[in-house]
Amino acid sequence: MMHNLKSQTGGVVFRAVVILFLILIAGFGGLVLYGSKSIYDLFENNQKLKQAIANLTREEQIGYAKVVYQEKIDKTLYTTLKFVETARGNPLETVLEREYTIPGDVVFFDALIVSFHNDQIMTGEKKALYLWRRVYGETMAPSQGFPIETPSRPPRRYGDFPWGVTGPDREMFWEAVWELADDPDFLKQHGIKAVYGNAVYKKLRPGLIYVFKISATGRVYPEMVPDI
Description:
Elements: H1 2-57, E1 59-73, E2 76-87, E3 90-103, E4 106-116, H2 118-122, E5 129-137, E6 146-147, H3 167-175, H4 177-180, H5 184-189, E7 192-203, E8 208-215, E9 220-226
Antiparallel strand pairs: 1-2, 1-8, 2-3, 4-5, 4-7, 5-6, 8-9
């Protein structure tokens, strides 16, 4: 009888150990699964964050300027420069090329910027648009500057922009783009943060190429590289 009791007791203990073991295994498996899910979510969120930062900090080459020659006429220095605007998505394709002679060697490049809110930029939905307006020297009034794009005409770089607007409607958009700055309802409707003018300037020297870039948020600046 004592033997049978011991056997029963041992069986109970064995079953209890097995059950406890199974519970522990199940708990450990769930912990591993939960941990894996957390790591996966973290990795996915990290990838989204990286993409958002990439979209926000993305820059695009939009053209360049270079000095053709500089000369003094009646003790006044003049800079003759070539200005080139390149195609959207292809910096090797020229869509506009002009030559200007500017008094002095400090030259302003004036553009109109259409910027969007950061949340739209981070998703890759939108990025800043621009319209080159004019070039002028520091001794000139901006109103006396030389036009880059033809006034009241859509820029060649945006042949299929903005927002699918084409034909006469597209021309109307770019002709009236200045008015957008004072139309809060339109700006809100299209997620536009601001419409504003921006002029960058450099002291130009022969032997250098001034490559213009625009960020997704609308910052335009020239980057200098040697003219090979």
